[in-house]
Amino acid sequence: MKLKIFATGGTFDKVYSPLEGTLTFNETHLPEILYLSRSTLDVDIETILLIDSLDMNFQHRQKISQRCKDCLEDRIVITHGTDTMVETAKLLGTEITNKTIVLTGSMVPYSFVKTDALFNFGCAIAYAQILQYGVYITMNGRYFTWDNVRKNRETGGFEIIK
User: Fold this and answer.
1) Please, which pLDDT band fits residue 114 given cuts at 50, 70 and 90?
2) Is the pLDDT of residue 123 over 90?
3) Is residue 2 in some structural domain?
4) CA dist 119 → 6, 53, 83, 104, 124 (Å)
5) pTM higher than 0.85
6) Domain coverage including residue 35
7) What's the chain's average pLDDT?
8) Counting CB atoms within 10 angstroms of each CB, which of 12, 80, 84, 155 has the fewest?
9) Residue 107 belongs to a domain with what CATH number?
10) Distance between CA atoms of residues 52 and 80, nearest Å
C-alpha cells in the first residue's frame, strides 16, 4: 500500500522568522518527520500549498480536491490548518467517495519543542491505513467523520457535533 501525503500549510509547517518576528512558511517538515520516526512506509509527499488556513479560499480547496481525485493512491493524508480544516473536509467528503482521506494539523508548529504535530501526524498515517473509504479529521488521538465534527473555538479541540 502506497500512501499519498499532501502538505497544505497551517500551523503544522510554520516556523518562526526572527527577522520579521512572525510565524511563516519555508517548506514542509514532513520528510524530516518521517525520517526521524524511522518510517518504513511507502509514501509520496507533495506540497500543494503552504498557507495559513484562514487565508484559504474555495479555489484552494478545489485544488486540494482535484489533487486527491487525480492521484493514483486511494489512501491520503493531508496536513492542514485547524481553523478551516472542517470546511475542506466537507468539500472533500461531498466530492470523493472512493478513497480514504485523513486531514490533520496541529495547534503548535512542528518546529516548536512542545508540539502536537508529531502525534497528530502519526495518528493520521495510522488511520489512513485502516479506516474505510471516506473523509476524516484526526486530532489529539481521535478521529471524526467529515460530516460530524467541529472545532470548538473555546477549547481549541475538535468534537462530535451530534
Assistant:
1) very high
2) yes
3) no
4) 17, 20, 18, 10, 9
5) yes
6) 12-159
7) 95
8) 155
9) 3.40.50.1170
10) 8
51, with CB counted inside 10 A (0-12, 13-18, 19+), is middle
Contact assessment for residue 2 and residue 43, using Cβ atoms and an 8 Å cutoff: yes
Nearest to 124 by CA among 89, 96, 83, 84: 89
Decide if 103 is inside a domain.
yes
Task: Look up 82 and say whether it is catalytic.
Answer: no
pLDDT score of 3:
97
CA separation for the pair 105, 114 (Å, rounded): 14
Whether 4 maps to a domain, the answer reads: no
Report the b/e string of 9-40 with b at 16+ CB within 10 A: bbbbbbbeeeeeeeeebeebbbeebbeeeeee
For the chain, the domain total comes to 1
| Within-domain flag for 3 | no
Cell numbers at residue 105, please?
A: 494539523
Q: Which of 11, 28, 82, 104 is catalytic?
A: 11
* Residue 71, SS3 per DSSP: coil
Q: What is the C-alpha to C-alpha distance for residues 92 and 6, in angstroms, rounded to an integer?
A: 13
pLDDT in tens, 56-81: 999 999 999 999 999 999 999 999 99
